Structure formats: structure tokens, C-alpha cells
Amino acid sequence: MYPGTANSARSALVARLARPRVRAAVAILLALAIDAAVFVPLRDWDEPAVLAAIGVLVAVLAGAFGGLVAGVIAAAAGFALQFFLFDQSTITLVALPAWLAAGATAGWLGTRSRVVAAATEERRAHEAAKYRALTEHLPVVTYLLSAGEKAVPLAVSPQLDRMLGYSANEWLRDQGLFLRLVHPEDRDRVEATLEERPENGTRELEYRLRARDGRVVWVRDAAVTVRDATGEPIGVQGYLLDVTERHYADEDRKQLRAAEATANADALDRQRKVDVVAQAAALLAASLDYRSTIREVAALCARELADWCVVDLLEEDGSLTRLAVERAEGSKSLPEPAAEPEPEVLEVVKAQRPVLTDERIAVPLVSHGGRALGLLTLRAGERRRAFASDDLSWARALAGMAALAIDTARLHDEVEARAEATRVLTYVGDGVFLLDRAGVIRLWNPMAEAITGLSAESVLGRLAVEAIPAWDQLSEKVPMAAAGETTQAQALPLDTDSGERWISISGVAFFGGTVYAFRDITEGHRLDELQAEFISTASHELRTPLAAVYGAAQTLRRHDFALDEAGRERFISLIVEESDRLGRIVNQILLANQLDVGRLDIMTEPFDGGELLERVAEAARTHAPPHISFEVIDPNGVPPVAADKDRVRQVLINLVENAIKYSPDGGKIELGVESEDGGVVFRVLDEGLGIPADEQPRIFQKFYRLDPDMTRGIGGTGLGLYICSELVERMGGRIWVESRDGKGSAFYFELPTVAPTRAFTRTHDAAEPS
């Protein structure tokens, strides 16, 4: 392009500054102003050397801008201010030539550089004139760019106006105009090519420009680097040729050929996809093993339709598993899918909406009832063309057939599983029932009927809050677990027609509802309550003799008053009696524990039952209250007993002590033995409180006491009768109680007699009665 008129941004002041005299005057005035602004305020400063350096610097700058004269005058003025305001010494006068030399040198160098620049500018103008004469009649737009790091337009031919509707001045004034006119789709490519610069040859490319009137002009841009005699680049010269008509003609021919090829390829592609869908349908219908058939279909899709085919299944517990991962042979452009489904897979499955991109088709597997079953994912890489909207139809067909195969197989398995589960639930020992998501009872097994007393006919199809008493409060306390997890069952009370029952219940929630399992722990709960009572009672029973022993011992240790021999004997006897009582309580607890863990040995030997009764009665008389009397009935002809003599003595002692304890008003205790039906029956009868008929079935349970609140002052651990029952059973006998119509209690236990031929000794495991 030809050099244009002066840029509109230049002011008249800039034009005048180009004159040497104006520049010199301005430089002198600025130097004087700077020196005055610095020296006058600082005339009292103690650092004249620093101010002298500032003055020299000002003189150098004035000379560089205004020339030799401006530099000398600025140096002289600065020296004068320095001399008259700060330092009139001889040394300061000696420095005057240095000031003048610095200003003059800077002025000479500034003048010299401007002369060289003017010569260079004149040479460039001459070259531009030659360029204009050569290019003004060419049928192309020629241009010239600077050779700097950033190409700046220096010239452009007037043909630009005919091609694009922009003048040469507009092109040169707005340096960013060119890139803005480049079509957006070509801009990055053109900009990258321009940055490379044709240092080693020519540059040629085609791209689109937008004309002022909106036309799109295809141009061929060819350029070459212009060098001087030394080989240094001085600019880039090129041309723009309008190739719009030729380009569109070529494009039309290419589009026709491409359309023909595309139509043929599309026809073949559609036929191939139809064949693949047919083969997939045959594979999926061949077997109920949908896992293997879906893997075969995934391999078929990877071979014929995509680079990767992945199938993820939604399991019954709501988790995703990766069923099939198949890759086309030779496909390496895509990374291998992870071993586990990605998080976005679950999102697509839940949304049940297909996802289509150029590289991916993801179609949810949905059952006939609308339930999500999984996801079919196809990926295209370098071996396959990008997916289009037409591909979604055959992908949906494949997903629908896969979902149908899964649904059919699962339905078949579910029918079989339900039949098996029904058989199992009929005989399982726990109560089991199922609530759907709406809280309606859908399953109620026979054991649930037995525990609750509610028949299946009365609860099935009804809301649990209506069918099960107080279910709304009960359900809030039931511990829940997710599918595949475990939880600790909770003991809760349940009101039934037969009274309150305690059940141990827990629930498992899954996507179809909640399954509850429970069992009857009424007896166990009652035993726990008795055990708690036992701990309290045992603590009390142990505390009483301990307090007596401790008090007597402390009294014996006192020195503030003297005890006679009778007093000391009384306290010692109290310690012995209470220690013996402590020993009996501890022995009961230890013996009960031995019975529970099965570590009690039973020795069988023949002995005389009547003699044993006499000894037990004699021992009981020594510590029994005076208002208690004993009577032993030992008829003749009773055969020897075949049992553990020490354990039988312990049973008799426990029964006698129990009779004494429950005879607070006194009375007679009868001990007897007799032969009956090949066995020996022992009895202990008292005239005490007696046992109500409704309590008799429970008296041999562990921790049971007839007077748990000790309203009659009767203590005990609740282990005596339990120990008697366990010992008798382990010796091969039986024990029972009979009512005496309010005249006390009657306890009986029967033991085997000695065999006619021989007596024997053996050890019984406490876990198995002999």
C-alpha cells in the first residue's frame, strides 16, 4: 500500500517538534524547569554531589532530545544553579567542563541518530514509491509488512477497495482489521501461519475474508521475505488473489462426490446394523442365561458397530455391576473402561434417558414395567465414524431386547425362588413378614401366626398399622439395616390375645419394601428379669452376713471396753454362723454356674436313703429356730439308692432350708423315703406358707423366688430349687411339688435304686442327664 497521509492521531504539536529549533527550545526550557524544581527547594541540603549528578543527568537528557546547543545550555544552567546556590569552591569550577562535555556529547549523539533515522525513512519512502509503481496495475492486492517480530502493515495496493470494500488508509490505520475480516472458522489457522513467518521461502494458503457488504471472498495469500544485500530481512511482500469462483466450483464437485459416497456408505451401514440387530435377537432368545448371551451380544456390537461395548447391570440391592466389556480388535484410540461402573452411569440409569454424543451412545435397559435394569454403552473411536441421531434407534432396539432377556430370566428365577422361599418360610423357626413400600403386609409366615396369634388371612393385604396392634409405635423402635448389611435385633413388647409377648425383631430395607424377622423371647426376657432380680437379691443376701461379720469383728477389736468370755464367745459364734451362711450362698452361686457350663461330675454309688435323712435332719436341728420340729419316717425294706450321695444330701439340705425359710410361723417338717415302682422317692413336707397352684410350674426356674419383694422377710438367691432340679435330673431322677390345700408345701424327688447284680460308679457330664 502507498504511504498514507499523516495519521489523524498526530497533533500539530508533534509536527512542530520535528523541527530542530523547536526541539532545542523545548529541551532547554524543560531542563531549566527541572533544575529549578530540584535545586531551589533543596538549597539547604548537605549533599551537593547528589544534586550535581541530577544536573548532569538533566543536561544529558536535554542534549539527547534537543541537540548539541540544547545540551550545552542545559549543562551551563545546571552548573550555574549548583555554583551559586550550594558550592562556590574551586572544585566546583573544575567540574564545569565535565558538565558541558556531557551535555554536548549527548546532544551530538541525539542529532546523529535523528539524521540516520531521517535517511532510513527517506530510503523506505523511495522503496515504497518503487513498490507502488510496480504493483498499482496488477489484478491482485499486493501488500508489504514490516520485518519486525510483529508484522505491521506498511503498504497495500488500492485493489483492496474493489476486493473487500475497504480503503488502503483504513487497512493501515487499523492494524487489527485484517484478522477481524478473516472468517471465524479460518482465523486460528491463518493466525498460526502468519506467526511462523516465511523466513526460508514462500508462504501460501487459502482462506476466507468477509467484505464490507457481507460477501465471503476466498483468497489465495502468497508471501515471501524480502532481504537486503547482507541477507537481513527488511520486510514481507505478498499478494491476495480472489479465488472465490474456482473454490466454489471445486466445492460443488467435492460435495457431489461426497454425497454419492455417503449415500452408498449409509445404505451399507443400515443393512449391517439391521443384520446385527437380527443376530442379537437370535442370541438373546437362545438361552435364559442372560449374562452369557448379553456378553455375546456385546462382543457382536464391538465387532460390527463400535470400538467399545459396555453393559452395566442394576442389581436387586441397587448397586451396579459391570457385566460385559468388549473391545473391537485393533482398536486402541480409546482408553479401556474401568473395572467398576463410573458414577455417571448410575445417573443415566436413574434418569432412564438415553445419552447421544459423537463418540458415545448410552441407552438405559428398562423392563416392560418401567423398572431400570442397567445401561448399554457404545463408544466410537478412530475406527468408527461419529454417532448420529439415526443410530439411536438401533441402539434402543438392542437395549430393549437385552432388557427383555434380563426381565424374562429374572422373572423365571423369581418364580422358582418364590416357590422355594415359600417352602422355606413355612418351616423356618422365626416369624417373617414383608411390607411393601406403602406399608401393606404382603407375606406372613406360619411362625408369625403362632407368635402373634394373627392369622395370615386376617393381615395379608392390610396396612401393618391396622393389622398389628400398636405397630405405629413399635415400628419406630425396630432397628433397620440396608440390603446386605446386618443389625442387632431389638427386644420389644407385643400385645397379643394371649397377653404380652416379648419379641426380638429387626428389619432389612430393600428397593421393594422391608422384610421383618422376629422370634419369641418371652421366656428369655423373663429369665433376664429374674437374673436382674437375682443380682439385687444376691447382693442383699451377701451384704447381710458380711455386715454382721464385719460388725462382730470390729467389736472384738475395740479396746475401749472389755468383753467377758461369754461376750467374746457370742461374737465369735456370730462370725462363724454368718461365715457359714456366706459360704452356703457362694457355694450355691458356684454350683449353679457349674451346672450351666456343664462342668459338674456326678458319682454313682449305693447308699442308704433313710440314714441320709437322719443325718440331714440332725444337722438341721442344730440351727433351726425353736418353733420348728423335725420328723423322719424311714420304713423298713427301702432298697439302696444308686446316686451321688453328696449331691443327694445337698438336694435334701436345700429342700429342708427352703421349708424352714418358708415356715416363718413354725411347724413340723417331715422327711421321708419310700420305695415306689423300682425307684426310691424322697419327700420333704412343711406346714409353712405353701405355693399357689399358678406358681408351681415356675418354682424350679433359675432365680425364681416365691416372695421376690421379701414382704414376709424371706430372703434367698432363687437358686436353691433350681440346683435341686438340675442335680436330680443329672442323677437320672425327677423332682416335683404338690399342693397341700394351704397346709404348706410337699416336695418329692425320685432316684433310681441299685441294680440287683452289682453297684457301679460313673461320672456324668452335666450337659447330659444320666
* Radius of gyration over all CA atoms, rounded: 58 Å
* Proportion of helical residues: 40-55%
Strand-pairing-aware structural class: alpha+beta
Contiguous low-pLDDT stretches (5 residues minimum) are 1-9, 708-713, 757-770
Mean pLDDT: 77
CATH topology grouping of the largest domain: Heat Shock Protein 90
CATH architecture title of the largest domain: 2-Layer Sandwich
Large-scale geometry: elongated
In DSSP terms (H or I, runs of 4 or more residues), the helix count works out at: 23
Approximate strand percentage: 15-25%
The top-level CATH class of the largest domain is Alpha Beta
Number of domains: 5
Query: Could you state the CATH homologous superfamily of the largest domain?
Result: Histidine kinase-like ATPase, C-terminal domain
Query: In total, how many beta strands?
Result: 25
Strand count, sense and closure of the main sheet? 6 strands, mixed
Q: Report how far apart the termini are.
A: 126 Å
